[in-house]
Design a protein that fits this description.
- By secondary structure, this protein is an alpha/beta fold.
- Helices cover about 30% and strands about 20% of the residues.
- It is built from four helices and seven strands, in the order ββαβββββααα.
Length: about 170
């Protein structure tokens, strides 16, 4: 797996034009305890830093992994974020809010917080976070439009990592 791997949302069997279904290792063991059944893989699971495929591949094939990457940690002044560009406003505003809190300017920090997360009393007013989420959703929707060659009917909705805000998943 890639060093910035966060969570897989598609593992594509490019050779056989299909998207593998994510499953749990126990299901593989229940179906074939000795893991001797060979065929074109239809399912996968992640075990440590490796993919476990079911069925055991009967030949060579090409896989394409589409995944969410873990953003790089910003430790030095010269470091840059690997987050998508549409997250930039949120990061700037969130940092500004934290500075205001540090300076004990809580009234202003609360106004910034309201602009970040929206106003719960007025759901029609979207916060920066929800706008970022919607922009990301459009990017993901575009990425999963493969066309008939990749078996678009097999594409499942992306699952966000567990640390994402559950209101938006």
């Amino acid at each position: 797996m890639a060093s910035d791997f966060g969570r897989s949302y598609h593992l594509v069997d490019y050779t056989n034009n299909r998207i593998l279904t994510e499953d749990v290792l126990r299901a593989f063991s229940e179906d074939d305890p000795l893991m001797t059944a060979t065929n074109n893989p239809t399912h996968f699971c992640i075990q440590g830093n490796f993919y476990r495929l079911y069925f055991v591949p009967s030949g060579v094939f090409t896989m394409i992994d589409r995944y969410w990457s873990v953003p790089t940690t910003l430790a030095l002044d010269a470091d840059t974020s690997t987050l998508p560009l549409f997250c930039e406003n949120f990061i700037i505003e969130w940092t500004y809010m934290k500075i205001l809190e540090y300076m004990n300017k809580y009234d202003t920090a609360d106004r910034v917080r309201s602009s970040l997360y929206g106003n719960p009393t007025k759901p029609s007013i979207k916060g920066v976070l929800e706008k970022c989420f919607m922009a990301n959703k459009k990017v993901i929707d575009t990425m999963i439009r493969f066309g008939p060659r990749y078996g678009a009917s097999q594409v499942s909705a992306p699952r966000f990592p567990s640390h994402y805000d559950s209101r938006y998943s």
